[in-house]
Design a protein that fits this description.
The structure is a homodimer of 358-residue chains. Chain A is of the alpha/beta class and 358 residues long. The first copy, chain A, has 2 domains: 263 residues, Alpha-Beta Barrel (TIM Barrel), CATH 3.20.20.105; 59 residues, no CATH class. Helix content of chain A is 41%, strand content 21%. Chain A contains 14 helices and 16 strands. In chain A, α6 crosses α7, α7 runs parallel beside α8 and α13 crosses α14. At the A-B interface, α3, α13 and α14 of A face α3, α13 and α14 of B.
Chain lengths: 358, 358
């Protein structure tokens, strides 16, 4: 896997990530396809909108459909019929979010499946093995995710564990041309620990660096400050991925801080709950004021939904819990996200990122 | 609206229905779009699969979104962005299925909305008015639907009422070029009453005749017998529509009995519950035996779903309650129904309908 930065504007970068499936322009937003499907959106639409990279989840996929099934197909790509890149989360974040049902020890984690309650063990080697089975284009190292707020000393202990797991992940990973492995910077809200994390990781051979443990309730200012601190200390020539972010304005801020990659459930989950992103802000389509509104979701949008359907019709679909209500809003939202990523990229190249507002 | 029969084989007919939106080849299957949306399927797919006529429901649409909204758009076609023909059910069947919440008198029916419990009145004139507001390509007359079994004398009383409502419906309807109005043959399981119904209706100027009150639990043999009896007495030159039917084999049987038009929720509803129609029978995709099956739903099918996805992947989507599970199975099922209608039509034209099995 190769990464080339074509253009910069202050800390912001416009680049291209080359994988076995082709080129991915950065900054890039990855639609979330947890279970091997971007909820409600067929691959035809994703391809039409030029999404080159989606995210899937190790934790969810190892439980369902399970690796025996994926093995039979040879890869998650073949199973889901997707011939573009896939980045897989290592499972750490999902497991930690199970709360009481998880036991963490120095070697790994034991948890109860949210599907059948069975006990499952996951550690660095197993996570990498699952991601190998999925044939993930970009593998993430396995680490421990901490809640917010979290004390300095607890964060320090957790970071030490994460750094060890990260090294074990890398040792278990076999490099292949066109594929890559990213490690994850942790250290909570403590810059000193973030620095230590970056030092631990930078000494090893990774294809990119994720910034984890943010967007967990710390607020935009602190998130931006930690992001800025991390990118200032991370290797310049490798892609940076801010996990789980976010709102268009957060993405813009993070790009200005030197981040190249993003994922978030917002455009898809919002689509399923009747929230649409537009150039004039978000719209709650269930609101009664849209019931007779014959204008499109967004007058400045050229997606099929805005070209074909009115707010009134979408209001009717969503109010009636029709499948197409979810499908159409998700489709529009993904188109919107793709569009703003293009606008951001062009603003970097054209040197007018300062004037851009989202 | 014009109807031309191009070819016949015994009682079966291959024809073309001409409406303001173009040609509709018969025998035709109408996907059900109750609320102004064929559940889970965008118009792009319907158009790609050459569906020229869908069904929508007066009862549901008058409650939601309501005629005030449709009025603003000028037609259901414009509201839902569909530029092909629409047949609308008159509301009678849906209202009767509300059971205890309905009061029928000689003038019309009063019922409680299933949405907010409010009292609503519907009669022949109102049903035609709503269908006019929807700008239905094919309007259905308003009648009383009866349960099964139902006594001769009760059926006779109901039929008399239905015949009066039918005349009132026709009086309230304004003819327009490219549009049409169908009446509905009632009379339960009594041929004598069916004959009376047909005599009542045939004396009036309708563009087509529906056969109502069947597929209500009477069994295939009785349904076929009544259908056969009705078509033998209906005018030859007008299209016949068997309401709410059905399984592919039922459709084939009814075509042999001289029916031209069909609607049923089967392909769409089955799609949402994990049942797929294939050339080798139906498949319950949730069945564990499909969890690792890398063959398509139907080896003889060329729909996008069968060309792209395995049974194992569809099993995974449906088991995980993913939106695309419903969407993909519905899409395949509609493709299948469209295909069998084409096969049936060609078999009529080629004179080998006797050899066809579905």
């Amino acid at each position: 896997m190769k990464f080339k930065i074509n253009s910069t504007f202050r800390k912001a970068r416009a680049g291209i990530l080359h994988t076995k499936y082709g080129k991915i322009e950065t900054p890039v937003f990855m639609p979330v396809g947890t279970l091997g499907t971007v909820k409600g959106i067929s691959k035809e639409i994703l391809q039409k909108y030029n999404f080159e990279l989606i995210l899937a989840n190790t934790y969810h996929l190892m439980l369902r459909p399970g690796m025996e099934v994926i093995n039979k197909f040879g890869s998650l790509n073949k199973f889901m019929s997707w011939n573009k890149s896939i980045l897989t989360d290592s499972g750490g974040f999902q497991i930690m979010s199970l709360g009481k049902n998880v036991k963490v020890d120095d070697e790994g984690v034991t948890f109860r499946s949210h599907l059948d309650g069975s006990l499952v063990r996951l550690n660095a080697e197993k996570s990498i093995e699952v991601q190998k089975c999925l044939d993930s284009t970009i593998t993430m190292t396995f680490d421990e995710c901490i809640p917010y707020p979290f004390s300095y000393s607890d964060t320090e202990v957790s970071l030490e564990r994460s750094s060890k797991w990260t090294k074990r992940s890398l040792n278990a990973y076999k490099k292949k041309s066109g594929y890559g492995i990213f490690s994850i910077v942790q250290g909570g809200m403590y810059k000193e620990l973030r620095k230590k994390s970056i030092e631990d990781l930078s000494s090893l051979e990774f294809d990119g660096y994720a910034i984890g443990g943010l967007a967990v309730g710390e607020g935009l200012k602190l998130m931006s400050s930690i992001t800025d601190y991390c990118t200032s200390n991370l290797p310049t020539e490798k892609p940076r991925y801010l996990m789980g972010v976010g709102y268009p304005s957060d993405i813009l801020e993070a790009v200005k801080n030197g981040v190249d990659m993003f994922d978030c459930v917002l455009p898809t989950r919002s689509g399923r709950t009747g929230l649409a992103f537009t150039t004039n802000g978000t719209i709650k389509i269930k609101n009664a004021k849209y019931s007779k509104d014959n204008s499109p979701l967004d007058n400045n949008c050229s997606c099929e939904i805005c070209l074909n359907y009115s707010r009134a019709y979408l209001h009717h679909l969503v109010k009636s819990s029709e499948i197409l209500g979810s499908v159409f809003l998700t489709q529009h939202n993904l188109f919107y996200y793709k569009k703003i990523m293009k606008i951001i990229r062009e603003a970097i190249i054209n040197g007018n990122l300062d004037n851009l507002k989202l």
